[in-house]
Structures are given as C-alpha cells and as structure tokens.
Amino acid sequence: MWAARHYYYSLLLSLVRDLYEISLQMEQVAHDRAKKEKSPSQDPLVYSVADEETEWLQSFLLLLFRSLKKHPPLLLDTVKNFCDILNPLDQLGIYKSNPGIIGLGGLVSSIAGIITVAYPQMKLKTR
C-alpha cells in the first residue's frame, strides 16, 4: 500500500506537469496562429448562445489537437501517465476497475515506453 500510494502521487505530479506543458504548448500555438493571421477577421452575421458555446468548445479542442500534434512526445507521455495511474487507483481503492481495463492500460503504457526507448526523440524533454 505504501508503494502504491507513493507511485500514485508520483503519477499525479507527472500528470500535472503534462497538463502544464500542454497549456504552454496551447499558448504557443495560439500565439503563432494569431501572429500568422494578422489580417482583420470578418464577423459572421448572426450568432446564437448555443453557437457561441459550441464554438468555444470546438476551438479549445482544435487548439488542443494542434498543440499535441505539434508536440508528439507530450501526447505520448500524457497517455503513458494516464494509463499508468489506473493501477494504483485500483490498488488503493480510489477507483475500482475491471482487470481487463488495468491490463489494457498496462499494455498501452508499455507500448508507449517501448516507443520512447526505440525513438529517443519521442522522450519528453522538460524545460
């Protein structure tokens, strides 16, 4: 239990670091895009509240996708950490999972680890 708890905390900190890196990448992509689009944008004629809310979500998801596409090691590390955290969550009783889900998470995490060993440029480098 002691080892699982500390492994859980380590993975939580790694996921926080990944989220921070993702936010930095999203800011960079948004800044680059704004710099590229210096021309004044044309406003559409009519908007509804639902359009504005879905547009915000779509633009956020598009920015997230572009950020992770531009920085694949960050995506790989985030997926690996997310898959790794399933095991201690189950062991500590925080979130009980099916053994198949834990096994699948372990498989995906192992594949991500193998990719980082086979291709060193895919290893996340922190600032």
Automatic annotation (TrEMBL):
It is found in: Peroxisome membrane. InterPro entries: PEX11 (IPR008733). Keywords: Membrane, Peroxisome, Peroxisome biogenesis, Transmembrane, Transmembrane helix. Its main location: membrane. GO terms for cellular component: peroxisomal membrane. It comes from the Eukaryota. GO terms for biological process: peroxisome fission. Coiled coil: none annotated. The chain crosses the membrane at residues 100-119. PANTHER family: PEROXISOMAL BIOGENESIS FACTOR 11, PEROXISOMAL MEMBRANE PROTEIN 11A. This is Peroxisomal membrane protein 11A isoform X2. The lineage of its organism: Eukaryota, Metazoa, Chordata, Craniata, Vertebrata.
